[in-house]
Specification:
Structural class of chain B: mainly alpha
Number of domains of chain B: 1
Low-confidence stretches of chain B: none
Largest sheet of chain B: none
Structural class of chain A: mainly alpha
Number of domains of chain A: 2
Radius of gyration of chain A: 21 Å
Distance between the termini of chain A: 66 Å
Distance between the termini of chain B: 78 Å
Number of helices of chain B: 8
Oligomer: heterodimer
Number of strands of chain B: 0
Largest interface: A-B, 63 and 62 residues
Strand content of chain A: under 5%
Shape of chain A: flat
Mean pLDDT of chain A: 80
Low-confidence stretches of chain A: 172-179
Order of helices and strands of chain A: HHHHHH
Largest sheet of chain A: none
Order of helices and strands of chain B: HHHHHHHH
């Protein structure tokens, strides 16, 4: 009977999950117009520093083993926050891209398709990277491979920029707007 | 009221199956057969299953064992149709996106293998509590089949939500109905197959029948009621982010 109870609980959780997804899906449909505001800017330079193997090597060389683990845990937690944010932005870009895929202009539709594919890759890699980071948190001797998320996110940024240009040609894309 | 052969019992067994046939016919007449081929096959099969099992259950001259024999065979065929339907959902949802198409294939294969293993273990531990072996065997088979279908549909809905993949309105409705049906049936068959609520099994039967009815109504809504027109207009990317992306791109180019 214990087995039956476990299965009944699993079935109940599955039902709750299915109904929850249905409700969130209908809410997403009605909140579709506010997508762009949901993108949170990501400091790619800081993200890049966290992934730097030379920083890893420097810290390992100059800190004791216990101090290194302490610092590495903090870096991993920060990395997890960046990966989560990149994944969230990718999710928003998937929806923006899907909306643009129906565009009449074939170049815009193609750019949107590319954006969706790259955003999907980032979302997938972010999921795997988060798993690796949480595993690494238990024994933080080496940094996990979150570089796939970083590389993918940069590619995604380029695709989003291209789509933005095609959608809004009037808005000048300032290459020298360095602050 | 909740006893077998009460008016409610007859209604809950007849209405959903007749409605399924009506739904299949409506899809055919509206030219939607090609779009939902597997579901139409499923609907007709469920109607046929009912058209055979219902008279067998009612006609006293037919041996009760025949009911369980027919049910056993029909469950195996139904399982085959349901799994084809689920694999089509996976192909449709993931197949449109090259970036995750392969991932979708690995997901259904891996999860399918894991769920079949779990279903086998669950079936192996279920007791044979009736002198006629086919009765508990049917309960265990339904429990095992629902373990796999409930797991696969939940995984499909979860992964599609995680990747924000778009569904066709009708396909989502079918998956939703099948997910609800599989979850409720899994719970009730798990209780029945493990010998629970022995004196209140008619209530579990009623729960299953009422769930079937609710799911058929869900399918009617999603397949026949026109979808609310969603604005497919392009969402402009925010300017401030473009600037940020440009800065990052510039840094990249200067490396």
């Amino acid at each position: 009977m214990t087995l039956a109870i476990i299965i009944v609980i699993a079935a109940f959780l599955s039902l709750v999950c299915i109904l929850g997804l249905t409700i969130s899906r209908s809410l997403q449909v009605s909140a579709g117009h506010d997508l762009a505001g949901k993108i949170h800017p990501l400091d790619v330079e800081a993200f890049r520093n966290l992934l730097s193997p030379s920083d890893d090597a420097f810290l390992r060389q100059h800190l004791s083993a216990s101090d290194f683990r302490l610092v590495q845990r903090a870096r991993l937690r920060a990395m997890a926050a960046y990966v989560q944010e990149a994944g969230r932005n990718a999710a928003v870009l998937i929806r923006i891209g899907q909306a643009a895929m129906a565009a009449a202009d074939p170049r815009t539709a193609e750019a949107a398709q590319q954006l969706v594919n790259e955003a999907l890759l980032v979302r997938r890699n972010a999921g795997f990277a988060l798993l690796k980071i949480y595993v690494a948190l238990t024994w933080p001797t080496s940094g996990p491979a979150a570089s796939s998320v970083f590389d993918g996110y940069q590619q995604l940024s380029r695709s989003a920029m291209l789509l933005g240009r095609l959608q809004n040609p009037a808005v000048p894309v300032r290459m020298s707007a360095r602050t | 009221m909740f006893q077998p052969h009460s008016f409610l019992w007859h209604y809950l067994w007849v209405a959903p199956n007749v409605l399924l046939a009506v739904l299949a016919l409506s899809l055919w007449r509206r030219g939607l057969y090609g779009e939902f081929r597997s579901f139409v096959v499923y609907a007709w099969f469920r109607f046929l299953q009912w058209a055979i099992l219902y008279p067998i259950d009612l006609i006293p001259s037919i041996d009760a064992k025949n009911y369980w024999r027919v049910l056993w065979v029909s469950l195996l065929i139904e399982a085959l149709i349901v799994f084809v339907l689920i694999s089509e959902f996976f192909a449709e949802v993931f197949g449109s996106y090259p970036a995750v198409a392969k991932f979708g294939k690995y997901l259904i294969r891996g999860a399918g293998a894991l769920l079949v293993t779990i279903a086998t273990v669950v079936a192996a531990y279920a007791p044979i509590d009736n002198t006629y072996w086919l009765i508990p065997a049917c309960h265990i088979l339904q429990e095992a089949l629902n373990v796999v279908s409930c797991g696969l549909i939940s995984l499909l809905l979860l992964s599609a939500a995680y990747f924000r993949l778009t569904w066709k309105h009708g396909a989502f409705g079918i998956a939703l109905g099948m997910g609800i049906s599989a979850s409720v049936h899994l719970a009730t068959w798990a209780v029945m197959a493990n010998g629970g609520l022995a004196d209140k099994r008619h209530l579990l039967d009623m729960t299953n029948m009422a769930t079937n009815h609710a799911c058929v109504l869900i399918w009617f809504y999603y397949l026949l009621v026109p979808q609310r027109v969603s604005t497919k207009s392009a969402v402009p990317l925010p300017e401030h982010n473009l600037e940020l992306w440009n800065r990052e791109l510039e840094r990249l180019l200067q490396q």
